[in-house]
Write the structure tokens for this entry.
Amino acid sequence: MQPERSNGWLGHVRAVLGEVLRSDAREFELAQGSLRLRVKRRIEAIPSAPALPAAPAESAHNPAWLTITAPLTGVFYLAPSPGARTYVELGEWVEAGTVVGLIEAMKVFNEVTVEQSGTVARILVEDGTLVHDGEALMLLDPSGTPPEAPERIRD
């Protein structure tokens, strides 16, 4: 690296990136002359606060639980249509890949799925709520055991 360049555009980029990383910004764009910088980052380690005020008993959760987060910003729905059965219920066992809700963004419905099997321990947002990318939607307890399959009748 050339020392004279580190104080030029590269130094400017480093300073800007440092400020972006210290903030809670998820997306940032800078255009100055011929320099154009666009930064998008995904913050997964820190779940967002619930959209609704939680009761004291609900605010604490087991650290082993997994947070299901919104993959994009939009309106979150727990059911495929008004009046239909919800995708999941509190306490229900779900397999990896199960659809647990929909997010409507720009008139397109996007499925929200779980990446790991477990029991739905908490539902943190209400049906029809505006959610933001990375916001916590549900908590999943992966330590649960799946319900036993019904026994097959042998002839």
About this structure: Residues 56-141 form a domain with the OB fold (Dihydrolipoamide Acetyltransferase, E2P) fold (CATH 2.40.50.100). The two ends are 77 Å apart (CA to CA). Confidence is low (pLDDT under 50) at residues 1-6, 45-59.
